[in-house]
Amino acid sequence: MHDTLEAFAMQLIDLSNPEPDGSRRLVPERELCARLNVSRGALRERLSQLEYIGVLSRRQGHGTYLQAPGPDVIRTYFTTVRALGFLDSAAIAEAREMLETVVAVQAARRATPADAERLRQLVDEMVACTAADDHDAATEADLAFHAGLFRIVDNPVFTMVHSGLAHALQQAMHERRRRAIAAESPDAEGRTATDTIHYPIVDAIAANDPDAARDAIRRHFEIHSLITLDQAEEASA
Question: What is the average per-residue pLDDT within 121-135?
């Protein structure tokens, strides 16, 4: 049996049978022990490690299966390393900004009118919730908007990474949005830039214009950073 967990998982794939849902059913433990030349205790320890990270599941009365893990794996990673101090909010925010810039461009290329309309409804919801002083609901709509960009692109790699980043940043985003709203003066219609800077992104995606989407998402992050930076400088003065 190989030393690394990844190599062990590859061995199991070779010793498993494909299922219609894409998972793979493992042969019985006795056969695995014989094929891998390991004790049952050593085998079960490795299987438990795979089960812990979501790669393996035991289905009562059906057997043991290898499967694609859910987003909890990467969420746990980002949350844990951040709590341990190996990763801060600034690094996560920078990675998110770089990733979303690429995703916004691809979303503009792939979006349907229905996709754009769903995004617009989320921005409308942000505006309405902020006007009603329901800032938690506004933040949730904001998070849903950005998650919606990833759903349009529908790339599982981007989706997994976004899930981890968004989860790790969720509390920070609530606080950052609260500071931004507090620092802003609403426009003539009572709307704040924190909300309305999302509309140009929607317009670019609705027009299937990648260049405009790139400019709009960059402007979104730029304005948001300027608002919170100005307030931080005032607080420290």
Answer: 93
